[in-house]
């Protein structure tokens, strides 16, 4: 009598099944990753919208926007207590207790202020950021929380020193703009945009005195070739945008000198690197190309003065991007130009 039984899979059939599963995974994985990135970008947009609401509430209380940093002059030169826009917005993002623990009379690096300085504020960090961890200072054991959303401090000319003319951006050292200053229109002015943490930056660069405040290179030029003065006297720093408490331009600012995600030629390759001249804390003047960058494919999220958040493509025309970065230069920007 023959015994009937279930037929087993052959080795070839098993291999075919495994191959089919592998193909399905290969097809589905990009879609899953794209869906996750879309969710991260939406959360990033929401973070910027919350900062927009915080700015509106600050302005409603103070009648002005916060300064990017406060720079004072003492007997030995220029000095800054360093506090950023983010620090001044804490009460308006449900961080009142953190704000109340700050002694704004002193720098963020003094012992009494290090507790708040090391905080990681979730609303300051984009979900797509690959390095959200706090920074440990190289000069002491202090830690600083990072931030991905920086403030528009102009296009090229950032700060002229005590008593000098201001920049064209929404924020500036020792300057608290009023909404009436935005004559280009709040909906036509970028106030905040994304940056990458631990960004490489060439700082303390020597800027030739022949460069006037408004003499900025072409937005389509290579920064090094356009500004050869940057190639000498610079110090490479690999930890920019890693201290949300610091109001210095290279930490919590960005400029519209070049379009989002602009890369610089470095030999046979291209690199992400920012360029900063003499810092605000030394009295200026300061020239800077601090580019808005993100890990979102194709562009960055940007907050406008009217509270809207728009995704700015990396291919946006450089002249248009600069126009969006000025508050009152009178440029005409068409709706289809970005």
TrEMBL record:
InterPro entries recorded: DUF1559, N_methyl_site, Pilin-like, Pre_pil_HX9DG_C
Residue stretches making up the DUF1559 domain: 33-317
UniProt-listed PANTHER family: GENERAL SECRETION PATHWAY PROTEIN G (PTHR30093), TYPE II SECRETION SYSTEM PROTEIN H (PTHR30093:SF2)
Protein name (database record): DUF1559 domain-containing protein
Organism: Singulisphaera sp. Ch08
